[in-house]
């Protein structure tokens, strides 16, 4: 007869087991639904990107073929962006590097520093290094938005240079570790950008 007292306990245990299984099933269903939804979104984004790429190619072909009423909007946008890109590459960024390098050299000499890092965190020096980093990052962003980037090998190469040799190098400037009396005339970024050394030495 004692086993009769176990029936309610077994029933409660079975009930809790059933509830636990239902809870796990609900969590599993939610996870599967989330995963499927994420996969669907990724597929939709991929299809949309491929469709946009095909549409652009078709539009460029139509423009090249002389179809009536066709306008290559990418070409119009590229024409708008190119003067700003040229100013940034040919003038603003090199000028900022030259200004940064000259100030570090002159200020280190003016205070009698043995190493260039001794003036690294003077507000003027630090600010000029940050300006070079910001201009390099801005140039990267402009290049990444340029409509014909993948069709221009020179611009793609310049983007890679900015991403690997300018922004990270200037963010952690190795030139600061040199002794002033043995430091090379050009910092690594000035060398990378092929800046004329005469710009550094001019009075």
Topology:
Layout: H1 6-65, H2 73-110, H3 123-145, H4 153-171, H5 188-192, H6 198-201
Helix pairs in contact: 2-3, 3-4
Describe it.
With 203 residues, the chain is mainly alpha-helical. The protein has two domains: 2-65; 73-201, no CATH class. Helix content is 73%, strand content 0%. It is built from six helices and no strands. α2 (73-110) packs antiparallel against α3 and α3 packs antiparallel against α4 (153-171). The radius of gyration is 31 Å and the shape is flat. The mean pLDDT is 79.
Task: Provide the descriptors you would attach to this structure in a database record.
203 residues; mainly alpha; flat
Number of discrete domains: 2
Could you say which structural class the secondary elements and strand pairing correspond to? mainly alpha
Output the helix-strand order: HHHHHH
Helical residues, percent: over 70%
- Sheet with the most strands? none
